[in-house]
């Protein structure tokens, strides 16, 4: 089953995008602004500064400007050139020193990687700080409001920054949609604290930070109400629109651009069905249409019924009048009878004429051979019994190779599956998805109507988390003599700390930081500033999004969360037998033991709930399930055995019941069923097919339920024979009588299951194969070994030997008469069928009502079929007492993030001659319909696309990383080797944290100038050389675009030197998927999207998510189901046609089978049973089982004489009781036991569906079918045979 946990637990361990070290996000915008000269004078005007130079620094090292006004100064040529490269709007005089400008440059370089993909946004953002720092007219819009003392120097304590709202709005609008791909989010989340408008952005930028906290060293109050009377004038540099063609952004970063508005998101397939509203009643169109069809058909049918009855009465009246007017001679009366009564009339009038049955060629051949075979078996029962058992034992030898398959991917994923091939490609070319170990701790909800549960984020609960984490860190699992801890196996994107997803990351996973950082208040603070405050960064150096560590909240109200979600991503391996995987499995087992033994009591003592899971949990629980229902299956066998023994025996008499009972025969029959199952499993084990747990638990019951029918029919057929016949005669006659019909029923069942073997899901395909062979072997054992046992049992009874103790013989008794049928009165059930049930169904009004009601049920079921959803809930497959039951329920209830979705590109040609780079990327100059822009558009319609966010793009980030604007990213030493950013070793000493621009990296230069690039894109050689640099570059404050960690496994570098990257991926997320249908629809939408983009760009793209492999089957499950059912029904029809040579009767059987199937689908809709491979197998199986309810009644109707009503009555009298007691009740008894199963899959797919099948089969076989036969049944197979010789009276036997 699908390890859906992995999907949900998607944890953004990807968001393990830790790689963003957004501490920078906060540091840059705050430090950025504060570099101006201040003026304590109140002079405001052109070419005058409000603050100039640096007069001090805070204790945390943040520099403070001088609050002294002064005229602007003319810079030297070098400084002027530097300023022009960063601030093209400033020319001439300036209000900043070289030191101030260097500070500005070093700080804005932190923001550039976030915004450089959209030049208009970047230019507006830089203008905001360039004007603040260096504008020659600074005093017109900067007013120093407070002055502070720093080491006896006056410094700026606070300023007012006057800016027009037009610029603020233009700035925000140009940046609000710019993506920051590394974190699958928007750049504004990092550089603007997720501001919703420019005023919120200004408030974030202008706040004064406490010591050692990132932010501005003084307060900046952004205002638009400049006092013109004192020479003030709001800063109003032109704000560029992101749609500006000269500074154009991609459609992904600027969807409002006129060039992009025309390329709206492509429509996705939606399952919106039409509906009709009548008053307050709303119905689907198909339901409304079927209701109209039923009303019309029912009206026509009832009108026909009335007309037919009226015409019949008129004909009878005319016939009576005619008879009264004639001499009423026998010959005249004979000719006035209906054609259907001719044979009966001739029999009554002519004693020299008798009747026989004209069987089809196949039936005649089978009856003849069954008669001969029956005689031979009766003479050699021991030989037949021993030979049969020898074959079974030989097949059972294969059990020495018996194995049970429990791996979910081997059970539920078909061979050649597209999703399986795509997973294999992803794993081998990129990297396998990580393993997930997870805890969900939640507050208790005492009732369903209770108000929202109490928040989980409290001091006591956080301390509990620290205690739990300490115990998890202390796990030491033993693997091959070595101890395995979490740090040995966990995923470490940056090679340091584990990427554990827990709110403890806001304290660096260290309990010592709890009080130092501010306890619960710090957690609340980090909920809002997790991307921008360095103290909120995780121990693994990345931001932790609250939605990955919390659950049970709405929107972004993280403080309302009612659950902690702790996830431990663990490294995975392609080879499941590798030491790495085995170490992980060993740790996972120790983890589960720890949870059950220690963590559960800890959590429950705090009145909280704990659910948990590991990567190997599902497989381990499936193994445990093998013994979960052994008792249930055993009880089912015992109940069935007791019923068989009672049914096979004669009416019990207190004195002689120990002779007439059939306990030993019933037990022998049950043993034969078990042997057929064992032989089937042995055969397939011998040829290397692994068994499954469902096979071991369901097939024995299934074969027993099917086999009991034939046992009852065979024994009752023998008991119906004349007592004066020899035992050989009775056995041969019985086999000739019922052999063809049980062969027909058994072959139909075998064929139905054989059709199921073509279902692609391995578990169900193997189930069908095992079941088909088991039923075939059971049938063969019944007509061989069981017939031999019947012979031996009847010999025992005739010799007055005690049942179960045949060695004990009782003297002769009146019980002799019980061995035959001629002197025995018909049973109560037989008399009811013939004298009560059949006459009631023969009433014309009852016939019309039955046809109308069953037609209504079928049409209603067709309408309900549209409500059946594809899927198979994981909870159903597991034992009811499995700890995973609660876990999956909590996953659906609490998780607020969807599974990661990768769009994998094959054979990306990055050479200069190819246009594929612009067909994939989403920054400026990329195609408006590029892959990443299309993903971004799709994320705007998440309800239909199921894509939650724009994709994280290694290609976009690489192009930004190498661009000259991102001067702090791609750098090189003078010898041409890679030079890291200034805040990373060796440029920055990691020991003392001090960084100096005068260190060994002082001579590093940017990799390229604009003139080095080709249309702002690297050439083939440049791409080839710099891509490995990018993928090994660590993200930092000076360059957040480093690809190490974020994109380490996103690009396959093997063989990329030839200009083609074999495989690369772009990561986004699905929307939260709570229902099985959501998983199916999301996969369908992703595939439709990829197919459309691939066709458009002529680039091979496919989507991949961990759950696709398990849900692929549901994309076409309806098609698979309908084709399988059609083939099974046609197979049954063909078998019936071949054996009976009657299209008429075969067609009626097929019609009834289809109605049973349709009604069963309707029951599935009512009971909310999903459509999956298990239910499809059950539906296919129901075709075979339903045959038994139809074929015996139809066969009896064919060989009866009289008109249709009389033949229906005779068929019900002879076979109705057998169908009810031998087929309906036997199955019902065994099915009911399954409701006590511990596995939900037994209850839903075997108890509920089998019970519905039995009841529907009973209703259709004993009510609808007889009525249908009485109205449109095929002609009788009875023929008239003239007796040539009284001594040959028995010549008219069945042939």
TrEMBL record:
Q: What is its main location?
A: membrane
- State the Gene Ontology BP annotations: cholesterol metabolic process; cholesterol transport
Residue intervals passing through the bilayer: 288-307, 381-400, 630-651, 663-687, 693-718, 766-792, 841-864, 1117-1140, 1147-1167, 1179-1199, 1211-1233, 1245-1269
Give start and end of each SSD domain: 629-792
Topological type in the membrane: Multi-pass membrane protein
Name the InterPro entries on file.
HMGCR/SNAP/NPC1-like_SSD, NPC1-like, NPC1_MLD, NPC1_N, SSD
Q: Which family does it belong to?
A: Belongs to the patched family.
Quote the PANTHER family the UniProt record gives.
NPC INTRACELLULAR CHOLESTEROL TRANSPORTER 1 (PTHR45727:SF2)
Name assigned to this protein: SSD domain-containing protein
Gene source species: Tagetes erecta
């Amino acid at each position: 089953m699908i390890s859906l946990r992995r999907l949900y637990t998607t944890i953004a361990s990807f968001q393990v995008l830790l790689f963003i070290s957004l501490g920078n996000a906060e540091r840059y915008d705050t430090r950025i602004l504060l570099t101006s000269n201040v003026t304590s004078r109140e002079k405001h005007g052109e070419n005058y500064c409000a603050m100039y130079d640096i007069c001090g620094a805070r204790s945390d090292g943040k520099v403070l400007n001088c609050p002294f006004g002064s005229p602007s100064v003319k810079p030297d040529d070098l400084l002027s050139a530097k300023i022009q490269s960063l601030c093209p709007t400033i020319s001439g005089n300036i209000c900043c020193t070289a030191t101030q400008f260097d500070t500005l440059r070093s700080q804005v370089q932190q923001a550039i990687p976030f915004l450089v993909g959209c030049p208009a946004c970047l230019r507006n953002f830089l203008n905001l700080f360039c004007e603040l720092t260096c504008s020659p007219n600074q005093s017109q819009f900067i007013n120093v409001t407070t002055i502070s003392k720093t080491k006896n120097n006056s410094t700026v304590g606070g300023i007012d920054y006057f800016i027009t709202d037009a610029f603020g709005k233009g700035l925000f609008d140009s940046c609000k949609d710019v993506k920051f791909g590394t974190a699958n989010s928007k750049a504004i989340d990092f550089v603007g604290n997720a501001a919703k408008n420019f005023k919120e952005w200004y408030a974030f930028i202008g706040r004064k930070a406490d010591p050692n906290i990132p932010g501005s060293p003084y307060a900046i109050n952004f205002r638009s109400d400049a006092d013109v009377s004192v020479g003030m004038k709001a800063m109003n540099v032109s704000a560029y629109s992101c749609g500006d063609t000269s500074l154009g952004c991609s459609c992904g970063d600027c969807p409002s651009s006129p060039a992009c508005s025309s390329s709206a998101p492509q429509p996705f397939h939606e399952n919106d069905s039409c509906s009709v509203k009548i008053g307050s009643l709303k119905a689907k169109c198909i339901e409304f249409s079927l209701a109209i069809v039923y009303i019309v058909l029912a009206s026509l049918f009832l009108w026909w019924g009335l007309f037919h009855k009226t015409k019949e009465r008129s004909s009878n009246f005319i016939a009576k009048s005619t008879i009264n007017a004639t001499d009423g001679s026998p010959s005249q009366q004979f000719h006035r009878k209906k054609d259907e009564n001719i044979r009966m009339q001739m029999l009554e009038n002519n004693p020299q004429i008798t009747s026989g049955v004209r069987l089809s060629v196949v039936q005649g051949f089978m009856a003849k051979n069954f008669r001969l075979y029956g005689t031979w078996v009766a003479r050699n029962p021991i030989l037949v019994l021993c030979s049969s058992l020898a074959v079974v034992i030989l097949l059972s030898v294969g059990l020495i190779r018996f194995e049970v398959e429990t791996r979910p991917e081997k059970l539920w994923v078909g061979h050649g599956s597209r999703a399986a091939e795509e997973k294999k490609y992803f794993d081998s070319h990129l990297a396998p998805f990580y393993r997930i170990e997870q805890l969900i701790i939640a507050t208790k909800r005492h009732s369903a109507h209770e108000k929202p549960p109490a928040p989980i984020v409290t001091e006591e609960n956080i301390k509990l988390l620290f205690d739990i984490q300490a115990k998890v860190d202390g796990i030491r699992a033993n693997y091959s003599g070595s101890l395995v801890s979490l740090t040995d196996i966990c995923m470490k994107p940056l090679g340091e700390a584990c990427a554990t997803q827990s709110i403890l990351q806001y304290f660096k996973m260290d309990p010592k930081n709890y009080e130092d950082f501010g306890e619960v208040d710090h957690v609340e603070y980090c909920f809002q500033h997790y991307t921008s405050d360095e103290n909120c960064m995780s121990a693994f150096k990345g931001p932790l999004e609250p939605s990955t560590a919390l659950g049970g909240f709405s929107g972004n109200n993280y403080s309302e969360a009612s659950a902690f979600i702790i996830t431990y991503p663990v490294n995975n391996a392609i080879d499941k037998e590798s030491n790495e995987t085995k170490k992980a499995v060993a740790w996972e087992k120790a983890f589960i033991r720890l949870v059950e033994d220690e963590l559960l009591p800890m959590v429950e003592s705090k009145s909280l709930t704990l659910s948990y899971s590991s990567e190997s949990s599902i497989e381990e629980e499936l193994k445990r399930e093998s013994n979960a229902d052994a008792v249930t299956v055993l009880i089912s066998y015992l109940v069935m055995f007791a019923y068989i023994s009672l049914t096979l025996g004669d009416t019990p008499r207190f004195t002689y019941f120990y002779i007439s009972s059939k306990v030993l025969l019933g037990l022998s029959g049950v043993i034969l069923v078990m042997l057929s199952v064992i032989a089937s499993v042995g055969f397939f084990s011998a040829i290397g097919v692994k068994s499954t747990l469902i096979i071991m638990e369901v097939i024995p019951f299934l074969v027993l339920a099917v086999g009991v029918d034939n046992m009852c029919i065979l024994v009752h057929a023998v008991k119906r024979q004349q007592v004066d016949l020899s035992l050989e005669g009775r056995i041969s006659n019985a086999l000739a009588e019922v052999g063809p019909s049980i062969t027909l029923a058994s072959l139909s069942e075998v064929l139905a299951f054989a059709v199921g073997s073509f279902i692609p899901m391995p578990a169900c395909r193997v189930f069908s194969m095992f079941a088909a062979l088991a039923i075939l072997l059971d049938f063969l054992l019944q007509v061989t070994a069981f017939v031999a046992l019947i012979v031996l049992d009847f010999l025992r009874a005739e010799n007055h030997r005690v049942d179960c103790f045949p060695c004990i013989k009782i003297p002769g008794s009146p019980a002799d008469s019980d061995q035959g049928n001629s002197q025995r009165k018909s049973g109560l059930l037989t008399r009811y069928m013939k004298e009560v049930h059949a006459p009631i169904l023969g009433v014309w009004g009852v016939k019309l009502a039955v046809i109308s009601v069953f037609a209504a049920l079928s049409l209603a079921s067709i309408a309900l079929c549209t409500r059946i959803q594809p899927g198979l809930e994981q909870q159903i497959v597991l034992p009811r007492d499995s700890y995973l039951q609660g876990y999956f329920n909590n996953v659906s209830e609490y998780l607020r993030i969807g599974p990661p979705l990768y769009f994998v590109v094959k054979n990306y040609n990055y050479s200069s001659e190819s246009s594929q780079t612009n067909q994939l990327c989403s920054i400026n100059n990329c195609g408006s319909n590029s892959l990443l822009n299309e993903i971004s558009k799709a994320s705007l319609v998440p309800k239909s696309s199921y894509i939650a966010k724009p994709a994280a793009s290694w290609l976009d980030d690489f192009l930004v990383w190498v661009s000259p604007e991102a001067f702090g990213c791609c750098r090189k030493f003078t010898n041409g080797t890679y030079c890291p950013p200034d805040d990373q070793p060796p440029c920055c000493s990691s020991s003392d944290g001090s960084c100096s621009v005068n260190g060994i990296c002082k001579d590093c230069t940017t990799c390229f100038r604009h003139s080095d690039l080709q249309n702002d894109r690297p050439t083939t050689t440049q791409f080839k050389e710099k891509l490995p640099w990018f993928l090994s570059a660590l993200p930092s404050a000076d360059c957040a675009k480093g690809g190490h960690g974020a994109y380490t496994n996103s690009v396959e570098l093997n063989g990329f030197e030839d200009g083609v990257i074999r495989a690369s991926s772009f990561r986004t997320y699905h929307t939260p998927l709570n229902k099985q249908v959501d998983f199916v629809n999301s996969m369908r939408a992703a595939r439709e999207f990829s197919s459309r983009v691939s066709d458009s760009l002529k680039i091979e793209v496919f989507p991949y998510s961990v759950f696709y492999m398990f849900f692929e089957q549901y994309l076409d499950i309806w098609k698979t189901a309908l084709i399988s059912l059609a083939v099974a029904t046609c197979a049954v029809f063909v078998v019936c046609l071949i054996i009976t040579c009657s299209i008429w009767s075969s067609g009626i059987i097929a019609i009834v089978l289809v109605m049973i199937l349709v009604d069963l689908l309707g029951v599935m809709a009512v009971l909310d049973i999903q459509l999956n491979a298990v239910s499809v197998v059950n539906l296919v199986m129901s075709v075979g089982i339903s045959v038994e309810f139809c074929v015996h009644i139809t066969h009896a109707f064919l060989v009866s004489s009289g008109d249709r009503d009389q033949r229906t009555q005779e068929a019900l009298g002879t076979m109705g009781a057998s169908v009810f007691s031998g087929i309906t009740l036997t199955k019902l008894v065994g099915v009911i036991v399954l409701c006590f199963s511990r596995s939900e899959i037994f209850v839903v797919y075997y108890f509920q569906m089998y019970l519905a099948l039995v009841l529907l089969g009973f209703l259709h076989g004993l009510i609808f079918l007889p009525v249908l036969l009485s109205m449109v049944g095929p002609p009788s197979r009875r023929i008239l045979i003239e007796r040539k010789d009284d001594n040959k009276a028995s010549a008219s036997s069945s042939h």
